[in-house]
Automatic annotation (TrEMBL):
This is Methylthioribose-1-phosphate isomerase. The record marks 146 as: Transition state stabilizer. NCBIfam families: eIF-2B_rel, PRK05720.1, salvage_mtnA. Pfam families: IF-2B (PF01008). It comes from the Bacteria. Pathway: Amino-acid biosynthesis; L-methionine biosynthesis via salvage pathway; L-methionine from S-methyl-5-thio-alpha-D-ribose 1-phosphate: step 1/6. It comes from Paractinoplanes aksuensis. Keywords: Amino-acid biosynthesis, Isomerase, Methionine biosynthesis. HAMAP family: Salvage_MtnA. Its EC number is 5.3.1.23.
Amino acid sequence: MRTIDWVDGAIEIIDQTVLPGEVKILRLHTVGELVAAIQSLAVRGAPALGVAGAFGVALAARVHADDPQALARAVRRVETARPTAVNLARGAQRAAALLSRGPQAVLEEACRVRDEEIAASDAMAARGADLLIELCGARPRLLTHCNTGGLAAVTVGTALGVVHELHQRGRLAGVIASETRPLLQGARLTSWELTRWGIEHRVAVDSAGPFLMARGEVDAVILGADRICANGDVINKIGTYAHALGARAAGIPFVVVAPESTIDLDTPYGAAVPIEDRGPGEITQWAEAVNPAFDVTPHDLVTAIVTDRRVITGSPGSTA
Ligand code: MRU
């Protein structure tokens, strides 16, 4: 299963807004349709957004081949559809760099972005599983947050790919999926993926995570990232910081699994990252609300960052 792909001249995605009730494929023919899908989280997760950005530019290159200004506007719409995950703009810019060579060259570059994310998932799964066994012993009990599986990438995923790999090796003692308020990526999407893989799991409300760690029921926290800054600050789904504090208080490892395409050496630290605010509508109809979609986990709370090429235990900016 590929969460996002280029099929017969259009982008095909699994519509993540209707999971787990329905598995629905959406075909996106225009930049407007893609931007709407990105903003409604029909396609989401940093690596998948990188691929969406690249395919979006491939779409724009076909539609606006004879109108450079309209093409530039379309590329800008794609790369700014959501602000926080660095992969989206990066994927779009990679494809856009080939625009002068024509639509076919752009599409080929977008397919390379897709293929690199598939390969990165496999590399992270193996490296991350080795590290978790090294840090926690033979059969760790893990807690994960948001959704970092195939739905967030193209096939296997990042942190959830490590969970899958440990399960395949017979080295997983249990997994708790944090439900992930307000859009329930954990309860809806991670749980759906774990069920499809035959991995037993339990869902916990977000605020239960640190307590379960304190009670000794979790050996490590493992999750993904939307952006990793040069100093190692990790931007990820809102609730990540609370889990990092819980892990630090409980004395257990807090491991981030993300492809190199998520490391942003041009952004020095977390406070410099635009955190998407998704407005009050997702939370409440009865009062004003603040709805940041991501948070910043300070680098000193992170045990290790596992990428497709290495394990980073300091700042990416000083080891790259
Ligand atoms: O708002 P979302 O669902 O796009 O947020 C996704 C996350 O925060 C993921 O943890 C992150 O993108 C890593 S995905 C492998």
